[in-house]
Amino acid sequence: METVTIKDKMFSLSIPAAEIQTAISKLAEKLNHELVGKDPLFLVILNGSFMFAADLFKMLTIPCEVSFVKLSSYRGTSSTEVVKTMIGLSDDIKGRTIVVIEDIVDTGHTLEHLMKMLDEQQPADIKICTLLFKPNAYLKCIRIDYVGIEIPNDFIVGYGLDYDGFGRNLADIYKIV
Fold first, then answer.
1. Which of 106, 125, 145, 164 is catalytic?
2. Nearest CA-CA partner of 118 in 133, 128, 129
C-alpha cells in the first residue's frame, strides 16, 4: 500500500518491509559478532519494539536472554517529554551486559530515563540498539551503539510504531502526510 489512513491522519509509504528486514539482518550480524562470550540480556522497550525484537531474535545465534520494560512518553503525534514507567525491570542486571532494544530513538528522553534506571543497578555494560534513529531530533549525548536505519524527523507508524495505539500491525513503515 502506498498510503494508509489511521484514525484522522493520512500516511505515505516510507520504509518497505524488505528494507526493514535487511537492516535487522545487518544488526543481528553485528550483534552476533561483537557480543560473543558476553551472554547479554536484551531489554526490549514495549510496546513499539515488539515486532523488531521478535524479528531480531530469530537471527541471533549467541547465547542470550530477553526481558521487557514498558515506558511511555508519546501522546498523539508528539512526545510529552515526560517518561512514565508502566512495567519495570524485574531481572538482576548487576555485572551483566545489557542491550537495550528500541524501535526508535528520537529526542532521547525515554532513553535517558531508562539509562538512569539501569545505571543504578550496576550492569557491566549497556549497549543501545535501535531500528530507527532520528539524528535531527536527538537532544541527548547517550551513545547509540547499533542503528538500523537513520530517518528524517517525520512522525511514523507501522512495524510496531503507532498513532494513538493504531497502526502497529503494518508490515511497512509510513510517514505522516
1. 106
2. 128
